[in-house]
UniProtKB/TrEMBL annotation:
It comes from Lacrimispora algidixylanolytica. It is found in: Cell membrane. The chain holds residues 284 to 579 of 629 of the full protein. Belongs to the cation transport ATPase (P-type) (TC 3.A.3) family. Type IB subfamily. This is Cd(2+)-exporting ATPase.
Length: 296
């Protein structure tokens, strides 16, 4: 494309809410045939509510499970973490205990010392890394909530799993339509998520995404894109989280959600969707193809 055409396209993209770091990214976008989406914060609003708190042990009330989880998440920038802290304040009306030694494990959860004990909040895999094994009953309890579309996180205190929290996030309103638009232009949508496969399927089915990869760590998301590229498939990744940064970098074109997204995701991407208006995505593809003269 000519410099003038590129400048005009960048201007148009800006009016549709895209911050394009360099014209090359728009040129590359015209060749993309596959778009990989992150789930939480990208397809969903990323502002979930805590739907259920459950306790596994008599000596830990629901409120104690909630309190320890909120304390561990107090410094979290992850949508799930922020939601847990906000919901705790809103429903329990008490101060959140401040944790120490906050540690984030991307794609898995958080670890912090709350009230003198180590607390973990996250996926079963996070707990396994510290040799905390969930019973079949505790695993099963999560399945109920996942079937209703919730994301489930477990809470451990010291050496024991003490409970779980089910969070329900809302799908962004325009996602279904956006996916159909992409499919019309023969672009294949794929869901890449760190969440459990049943929670992922529940979301994917609602918006007609057939290809789903769940339980992805940040390196798995990146690895998937790498594998596509080895097959000469050009992939655009769209994500918001720290966990998406390696994939955003690896992708032929990376697009970050600018509103909800973390700075790390924005820095890793070529383009930022400033107001998270996901319905604008198909427009950007059309724009790049027009610019490259692939379509009129
Ligand atoms: P996604 O790919 O859908 O955006 P993430 O990779 O950010 O999801 O998270 C994947 C999973 O890791 C979550 O479903 C949750 O189980 C766990 N997790 C990640 N961050 C946190 C956190 N701050 N608190 C609790 N769990 C978390
Ligand atoms: Mg996310």
């Amino acid at each position: 494309a000519t410099p003038t055409a590129i400048m005009a396209a960048i201007g148009n993209a800006t009016r549709h809410g895209f911050l394009v770091r360099e014209g090359d990214a728009l040129e590359r976008l015209a060749a993309v045939k596959k778009v990989t989406f992150d789930k939480t914060g990208t397809l969903t609003y990323g502002t979930p509510g805590v739907y259920k708190v459950s306790s596994f042990l008599k000596e830990f009330s629901q409120e104690m499970v909630f309190e320890m989880a909120a304390g561990a998440e107090l410094r979290s920038e992850h949508p799930l973490g922020k939601a847990i802290v906000l919901s705790y304040r809103y429903t329990i009306h008490k101060e959140v205990p401040d944790g120490e030694g906050f540690q984030m494990v991307p794609g898995r959860g958080v670890i912090a010392t709350v009230k003198g004990t180590v607390v973990m909040v996250g996926s079963p895999e996070l707990l396994f890394t510290k040799d905390i094994i969930l019973t079949p009953k505790q695993m099963e309890e999560a399945e109920f909530s996942r079937k209703e579309g919730c994301t489930v996180v477990y809470v451990s205190v010291g050496e024991r799993a003490v409970g779980l929290l089910a969070l329900s996030d809302t799908l962004r309103k325009e996602v279904g339509e956006m996916i159909l638009e992409l499919k019309k232009t023969l672009i294949t949508p794929v869901l890449l998520t760190g969440d459990h496969k049943n929670a992922a399927r529940q979301i994917a089915d609602q918006v007609h995404i057939n290809e789903v990869y769940a339980d992805c760590l940040p390196e798995d998301k990146m690895g998937f894109i790498e594998a596509c590229q080895q097959k000469k498939e050009y992939v655009c990744m769209i994500g918001d989280g720290v966990n998406d940064a390696p994939a955003l970098k690896q992708a032929y074109v990376g697009i970050a959600m600018g509103g909800i997204g973390s700075d790390i995701a924005v820095e890793a991407a070529d383009i930022t969707l400033v107001n998270d208006e996901i319905k604008e995505i198909p427009h950007l593809f059309k724009l790049s193809k027009k610019m490259m003269g692939t379509i009129k």
